[in-house]
Amino acid sequence: MTKISSSLSSWLRSHLGKASEISTVQKIIKQRNIHTICEEGRCPNRGECYSQGTATFLLMGNICTRSCAFCQVDKGHSPMTLDENEPQKVAEAVNLLGLRYVVLTSVARDDLQDGGASWFVKVMKTVKMLNPDTLIEVLTPDFGTGKDALTQQRKSIKAIVDAKPACYNHNLETVARLQNPVRRGAKYDRSLRVLATVKEFDPRIPTKSGLMLGLGETKEEIITTLEDLRKVGCDRITIGQYLQPSLAHLSVQKYWTPQEFEELGNIAKLLGFNHVRSGPLVRSSYHAGE
Predict the structure, then answer these.
(1) Closest CA to 201 of 229, 166, 259, 159
(2) How far is CA 112 from the centre of its chain?
(3) pTM
(4) Domains in the chain, start-ordered, CATH in brackets?
């Protein structure tokens, strides 16, 4: 696969949304000094999502303890101190935006003993108190580093499962062969174990994962990855095109076409995924409420 250096194809141009609606969401977020992955990750769909009054909240600051080669979020060994008012701020933002379905994600916080799992739970409970009819999807790190990593991972996942999310999402991001150069600090088997553990603790909770294409993977490797996800009971999948955030990040090796995304989406459905989003601009939280 060769890198495509020409301008982006028409199918990679994102929807802008109405400026007034985008401004409303940004104002609510900035006034409370909270973060969204929409902004920190420069999601190509943020204009469309903002115009619909939706956002994916990024918990525990905007500095990640890992340095994944694809991600726009700032990296550092001195993450932000947890803001004790963040749960209330997020709950108020959800209320003001009138969200019926909210996605909570976070930076990786390997500096915290539980990886931030208890913070997820705190935010979930606070959001529910102010917005009892709002469904909450979580998109978590793997909680898999540090002393007694396996035991702690299970404890962290159990705490979040017990808080009853509407969906538990953990992104595999790429195929097994490309894990090390793409997801520094993460492991393919460890991520599959996250999804398997959720089902072990509560098989009723839908699980979800996401893949980026264009990093050098083959179609055969993608299918193998989808099969591995189904083996651990993963119910939902998102498949989208990787877009290079800056020259400091991994370069794009291939732009997959809409027709190829459609084919892969059909393969995912045949494998048994009950909710499939596959397209160039699809991201892990894209139209999550549907």
Answers:
(1) 159
(2) 20
(3) 0.87
(4) 14-209 (3.20.20.70)
Cα separation, 186 vs 179, in Å, equals 7
Question: Residue 238: what pLDDT?
Answer: 96
CA-closest candidate to residue 43, choices 21, 64, 70, 77: 70
**59 within 8 A of 90, measured Cβ to Cβ:** yes
Q: Is the pLDDT of residue 3 over 60?
A: no
Work out the number of other CB atoms within 10 angstroms of the CB of residue 81. Answer: 8
CA atoms within 13 A of residue 50's CA, in its CB half-sphere: 26
User: How much is the pLDDT for 111?
Assistant: 86
Size of the chain, expressed as the number of residues it contains: 290
Residue spans of alpha helices (H) in 131-178: 149-162
R_g of the chain computed on alpha carbons: 18
pLDDT confidence of residue 85: 95
Residue 98 has pLDDT above 50, yes or no: yes
